[in-house]
UniProtKB/TrEMBL annotation:
InterPro entries: Flavoprotein-like_sf, FMN_Rdtase-like_dom, NAD(P)H-dep_FMN_reductase, NADPH-dep_FMN_reduc_SsuE. It comes from the Bacteria. GO terms for molecular function: FMN reductase [NAD(P)H] activity; oxidoreductase activity, acting on NAD(P)H, quinone or similar compound as acceptor. GO terms for biological process: alkanesulfonate catabolic process. It holds the Pfam family FMN_red. Residues 1-141 form the NADPH-dependent FMN reductase-like domain. Keywords: Flavoprotein, FMN, Oxidoreductase. Belongs to the SsuE family. This is NADPH-dependent FMN reductase. SUPFAM superfamilies: Flavoproteins (SSF52218).
Amino acid sequence: MLVVSLAGSPSQRSRSAVLLDIAGDWLHQRGVEVVRYGVRDFDAADLLHARFDSPRVQQLLEHVARADALLIATPVYKASVAGALKTLLDLLPERALAHKAVLPLATGGSVAHMLAVDYSLKPVLAALKAQEILHGVYATDAQIAYAEPQRPARLAPELHERLVESLQQLYAALARRPQPLNPQLLPERLASARWSI
């Protein structure tokens, strides 16, 4: 199973990225391959000028095409998702998220921006034909503590519980996905089948 994680914050230090990293680590501990991208990984000119032929953009497109699911995290700025994330999502083909589950994660200064995910991110994911958009997790900045020299990043207990619950739903969605058929399987079964007329 492959999950692509997209960090939407343009900042070097980001609470939404902390949330995303903890989620990615949780999946990785359960045997899920997680490929991580952030808007900071891309040349700004490639994003602004929609350079689909950029090697880094091509690499992202290949991983998204192979992915079973996506984790997408964004800070909420002025009641909307980060503009850099929207610009990156605009580079994906129209049906890029077909047959994929998506777990949106967001952080903001207060609970007043809690619906930003529903009103600004989920419509974009739906336009990309995401098969299953999970409820998602919204956290306030006060619920996330950055890592310190002797301490890992920490989440408030209630937030950690909600995140794990959402990750369990994503993991269940991954388990429900049909697995690709081995092209050698059918000829082997036909050759070993007992035929009668």
